[in-house]
Give the backbone structure.
Amino acid sequence: MPELPEVQTLVDDLKACHTIGARISKVEVHWPALLAGSETFEFKQKLAGTVIKDIRRRGKYMIWTLAADCHMVVHLRMSGRFYFAGSGEKPAKHVHLVFELEDGRRLMYHDTRKFGRFYLVHDPREVVGRLGPEPLDKNLTSRRLAKMLSRRHRRLKPLLLDQTFIAGLGNIYTDEALWEACIHPLSIACHLSARQAASLLRAIRKVLRQGLDKRGTSLGRGLNNFALLSQQAGGNASSLKVYQRADMPCPRCGTPVKRLVVSQRSTHICPRCQKLPVDLSKS
């Protein structure tokens, strides 16, 4: 579930907790399947004794720079989360990786569904090289987005969820952005006008910045939900306009929000604000 705002919030929190510059003294691996392309011994050996030089985000990935020729690329998938624990605290049931730092702290990786992945690579582009542009990058202009859309004869929502098209969007922020822009998720990408493309880009940036300001979206307090490094919930859920608000009034027009399934993904729209294009409604 973690999308761009949630991953960026974790990166920012890790930096604020002086993780940059910390040395990893030992790694415990309790679920080797999380390691993509690495054997447990190799993973532990490469990380032990190395200094965390940087942590940054690309799309939904966290990129940890550990040495000149070593990067740990992390994808949290559905339920991955990090938190710090004291030296005497035992790992909880769903903690599958433990990074012991030289300063005595223990960074736990908790993942109830075990879908997360950790890649050790020489060049992060081995993992993230095919990702599309960052939605908050100033180089992604409305004109560029309009051109990208004009080349795709796909339904809009699945296209926005495609990380090779735009990196960082998931189900939550895509639904919110499409509502903000008054565009139906079944719209065909190449049929959008330049004006709609500009409106969509503004909407995407608005909902992402709101998510960042509110420190992410937590849809409850269960272990499958996003949590901050402090294990507290993100504050954006109360600001959502349509996502998981089926049958509740649209904040803009009062029409009950409707739940659809688009490409096997739960989707929430206002049927009045987000009209189905005429060419699709007749099909």
